[in-house]
Amino acid sequence: MLEISKSDVGNGSRSFDVMIIGGGIGGTTLAAILARHGVRVGLIEAGGHPRFAIGESTIPETIVGLRVLARRYDVPEIGYLAGHHTLRRKVSASSGVKRNFGFAYHREGEPFRAEECTQHPTWSPPIGPDSHFFRQDIDAYLFQVAVSYGATGLQYTPVTGVDFDSDGATVRTASSGEYRAKYVVDAGGMRSLLGEQFDLRIQPAPYQTRSRTIFNHFVGVEPFDDVIPSRKEHLMPSPFSQGTLHHLFKGGWAWVIPFDNHIGTTSQLCSVGINLDLDQYPRRDGESPEDEFWAHVNRFPTFRAQMRKARAVRPYTSSNQSQFASKQIVGDRWCLLPHASDFIDPLFSSGLAVTMMILNALGHRLIDAVREDDFATERFEYVQTWTKKSFAYYDNLVSYSYTSWDNFDLWNAWHRVWCVATMYGANSQMQTVFDYEKTKDKRAFDRLEQAPYRGLQAVDNPQFATLFETACAAMQSYRDKDIDAAEAGHRIHVALRDSGLVPSPRWTGWRALDPDNRLPTGAFTLLGMTRVLLWGKFASPAHVRGTYFTNGFTGVSKEAAKLYLSEVARGAGLGTQVARDMLTYRNRDWRKVGGLDRRAR
User: Fold this and answer.
1) Residue 547, number of CB atoms within 10 A of its CB
2) From CA 18, how far away is CA 151, in angstroms rounded?
3) For residue range 317-349, what is the model confidence (pLDDT) as tens digits?
4) For 192-229, how does the pLDDT look when each residue is reduced to its tens digit (9 = 90+)?
5) Contacts with 474 (C-beta within 8 Å, 6 or more apart), sequence order
6) Which of the ends of the chain has fewer CB neighbours closer than 10 A, N or C?
7) Angle 259-260-261 (CA atoms, 0-180°, nearest 5)?
8) Averaged over 265-285, what is the pLDDT?
9) Are 300 and 247 in contact (CB under 8 A)?
10) Which residues contact 11 (CB under 8 A, 6 or more apart)?
């Protein structure tokens, strides 16, 4: 008889190359990457899966970042999260679709005005659309993926402390004794264990943005499209209810993230959170999070109409302040993932994108460190540098967004800077994926750590850096009351024009240089993407041509054909499966795990 010991099933080991503390999306993804490459990984989680978590809305740089991780590190399951079609089919039908970023401006006591909204469509298939992650499904799935590749998963195992020495670390737990590791990654989020143990938090957080959040999950939230004027009046091309809706008002905003917004959903839930500037909306003594939440909803008649049938499914959660920061992100045999080191605000859904960018940089460094038995802190300095640069950028972006909500036209000017940055940031990663698909040479991914592709949102691009600096200066002058909103908006539009980064309206249909237009980017349909790619390749300024949009047309075409054929085959396969099951019990379905052959694993 075959005897299986506890160590054979992956739970008996007490010694690891890398111990990851925290089983959320960042920790589990990193564990899967490392385990896939032979690193002995411990993945330790104080709670258990499935569990509630937020960080639900993706952006183009998130989904393309997931594609980068899947290709670079040969973990196809990560790639299933990179587009809504594969996500809902292979991971979670309870996750929502995100076809747009919708922004609706509100004035207290007045109905929403159809002419005061903007929209930024996400990429259509084959690259998109983006998704609303139902995190308890996503995190549990990735935990299973990590374990399937050989990571040792430890749930319901709180860590009480970590003792470092010259050879590594001893990780102490409340219920399972001690473990040894050569390196420790803290993926524990805001309540970072190492952040507390090493007193890494900067108090107060050194960011301009000062906000707090109240949120919950609800059933019964109405689609925004059902409570507002028709599309003929607001002129936005994509249904608001099929994207992340942002209710904007002076000094704050609210997210509405539906999970029940696509055919085939298994969810009735919608995530809703309100974010408030601390100085304009200080917390009132004795007011419960639930009372304050509804007090703000009721200030805005159309938001109230959307929420009139909503019922919460869990206790309300609130924060005293959303922002936190760390003095140090990497040290001797340890590092913090981005969501354990710093946070700005949920606006623009930056958290997951920063995490994926850093996982790409950290993954190969840890794999090489284990192989070479060299965990010198200098090896990981890039992680600290670009984590900090990314959060500094988002602090400016978000802080001035709060300022822009004084005036709709000012917001309509300011948010175009973000639209442009999003396109270049996502293209940097996507053309890298296409280069890899063409050559199958993993060195293609090295480019993402070279100028001007480092970081997110084109922050490494000199032309964008000038644009952003000029736009921020205009917003600061408005904030200081040196100029009015109209002049600030004018300066931003001039900076956009002078940057040369805005695609030509004749080639692409973009209207980002038209102050009166509220859909500055046009649509990212297959045709829209193709037009932008052709502009970039043949008609863009010299500082764009050859640096961006170098090989996208062929790559997009191949991806489109691949996705279409896979969906057709899936539909045909389901019909064949039903007919087979009517006639026989025999099948070989059990050989497949999430679309992968068990024998190949």
Assistant:
1) 18
2) 10
3) 999 999 999 999 999 999 999 999 999 999 999
4) 999 999 999 999 999 999 999 999 999 999 999 999 99
5) 483, 487, 488, 489, 491, 492, 495
6) N
7) 100
8) 96
9) yes
10) 152, 154
